[in-house]
UniProtKB/TrEMBL annotation:
CDD domains: L-Ala-DL-Glu_epimerase. The gene is ycjG. Belongs to the mandelate racemase/muconate lactonizing enzyme family. This is Dipeptide epimerase. Its EC number is 5.1.1.-. Keywords: Isomerase, Magnesium, Metal-binding. The active site is at K144 (proton acceptor), K240 (proton acceptor). The keyword rRNA-binding does not apply. It comes from the Bacteria. It is an enzyme of class 5 (isomerase). Pfam families: MR_MLE_C, MR_MLE_N. One of its GO terms (molecular function) is racemase and epimerase activity, acting on amino acids and derivatives. Residues 125-216 form the Mandelate racemase/muconate lactonizing enzyme C-terminal domain. The lineage of its organism: Bacteria, Pseudomonadati, Pseudomonadota, Alphaproteobacteria, Rhodobacterales.
Length: 321
């Protein structure tokens, strides 16, 4: 068996801005695993917030034994981007070797389309209202906030898309006081969900606070070991494969979170259809699906995921799984 990793760059359809900065392209790592004439593929997006770089993640992957198995991988690498790409490539390889689809191997039903959020880039209120109006036909919009002018932007988006469901992502940009002040306005404007309002290291402030809008843990939730620290603070957990370290742990986290009474959101970094494909299996029946990465790109993989009025569909075998 051979494992190779390479950097791929996908141009974005437009500049994408969050409170942490702007980008014009998505830089990803593509993993290819070959064994006995079969090839498995996986993709990850290293994230600086978690001290990951393209170089550090590449080194982690290249340091693995050539005969690594999916079970052994869970202990060889920590939860994160490197394990994600390899785990998903091994799932793809196993499916091809077995002549089955990944969901069959995992004992899951074939994925049905799920309505996905579409993320509006952070911009001036006027620009965000225009973005919202342009995308008002989409049933679910996501707004990146975490600035001193959040309410003005939120009001503008609601004006531009009066009928869309809205979720907001503060990207750890608020304090407990800011969240408490904004919460009634979020209710008034019909916001369905607030993602990670406080920094992960300061979210104890959520204990005992009223949460009139469900609060979702993103940076505070990586894998099953995170759950014990979320009690009393969050209502929803955001499962991203680049955080869990692949599909294997993502499915286990979903089941554990649901068993503990949390609702589930399935999110993504800005990557291609190859990165989203495994996540479509996790997203089945989720409270919120946020797998819009390919919709933000100007270019994508061959055999990309299908997005239509029914939502994001599961992958064709030519792409993954």
């Amino acid at each position: 068996m051979t494992i190779t990793v390479q950097k791929d760059v996908f141009k974005l359809a437009q500049v994408f801005t969050i409170s942490r900065g702007s980008r014009t392209e998505a830089k990803v790592l593509t993993v290819k695993i070959e064994r006995d004439g079969h090839v498995g593929w996986g993709e990850c997006v290293p994230y600086a917030r978690y001290d990951e770089t393209l170089e550090s993640v590449t080194a982690e992957i290249e340091g693995l034994p050539a005969d690594v198995t999916r079970d052994a991988l869970q202990d060889l690498l920590p939860a994160g981007a490197a394990r994600n790409a390899v785990d998903c490539a091994l799932w793809d390889l196993e499916a091809k070797q077995a002549g089955k689809r990944v969901w069959e191997l995992a004992g899951l039903p074939a994925p049905e389309p799920e309505i996905t959020a579409y993320t509006l880039s952070l911009a001036s209120p006027e620009e965000m209202q225009a973005q919202a109006a342009k995308n008002a036909h989409r049933p679910l919009l996501k707004i990146k906030l975490g600035t001193p002018d959040d309410m003005v932007r939120l009001e503008a988006v609601r004006k531009g898309a009066p009928d869309a469901r809205i979720i907001v992502d503060a990207n750890e940009g608020w304090s407990a006081e800011v969240y408490a002040d904004l919460a009634p306005h979020l209710v008034r404007l019909g916001v369905d969900l607030v993602e990670q309002p406080l920094p992960a290291g300061e979210d104890d402030a959520l204990l005992g606070m009223d949460r009139p809008v469900p609060v979702c843990a993103d940076e505070s939730c990586h894998d099953r070991t995170s759950l014990a620290k979320l009690k009393g603070k969050y209502d929803v957990v955001n499962i991203k494969l680049d955080k869990t370290g692949g599909l294997t742990e993502a499915l286990k986290l979903r089941d554990a979170a649901l068993a503990e009474g949390y609702k589930v959101m399935v999110g993504c970094m800005v990557g291609s259809s190859l990165a989203m494909a495994p996540a479509t299996l996790v997203a089945q029946g989720a409270m919120v699906t946020d797998l819009d990465g390919p919709l933000l790109l100007a270019e994508d993989r061959d055999a990309p995921l299908t997005f239509d009025e029914a939502g994001v569909h599961g992958p064709e075998a030519a792409l993954w799984g």
